[in-house]
Amino acid sequence: ELIELINHYNSDVNYHGILVQLPLPKYIDENKIIESIIPEKDVDGFHPVNVGNLVIGKDSMIPCTPFGIIELLKRSKIETYGKHVVVVGRSNIVGKPIANLLLQKKDGANSIVTVVHSAAKNIEHYTRQADILIAAIGSPNFINDKMIKEGVVIIDVGINRVENPSKEKGYSIVGDVDFDSVFEKASFITPVPGGVGPMTIAMLLKNTLIAFKKITTYN
Questions:
Q1: Partner of 21 at 20 to 30 A CA spacing, among 9, 43, 81, 156?
Q2: Tell me: domain 64-195, CATH 3.40.50.720, correct?
Q3: Nearest-CA neighbor of 207 among 11, 36, 60?
């Protein structure tokens, strides 16, 4: 039924972008659903065709959060050429695509990239080497001042709820980085909330505009 609905929007030229909110219930095959969206309307950038094009540096729909990170770095005039970028996390949504984007031989990228994940025995060994640290592991306040070097640029992708009885909702939203701990040591850090999150939404709109232009040109 869901695939039938997606196929309807695939063929309707009045719809230019399709996004399926993940994660889906366990009884639904996420890969099958993502692959049913035509690449031209895949504004999330998760279709295998778009993923493959991203890896080899061809024009593609770029996943929104990594796209937003690249835009943040560019607009903040942060040099990436030859810089050591350490990505903490290897998800298909953030870790893998941002690593591949920053490896590309083009402006706003051309970095030396290390991806660190749960199999690393000593994460600090890698994070202390980072000129630019991108934290995307979904673990509240995981990165602290002892894990970074002076002057590092930190992009905190994490959005985590932590219990906080003093708040009306009973919780606070924090990132993967202990903001107060690293603030004085970092040269640049994105806040949570209000940092990468709004950029993700902005890039979703940008991808939709890109899709619109491509589809209207083809038709």
A1: 156
A2: yes
A3: 60
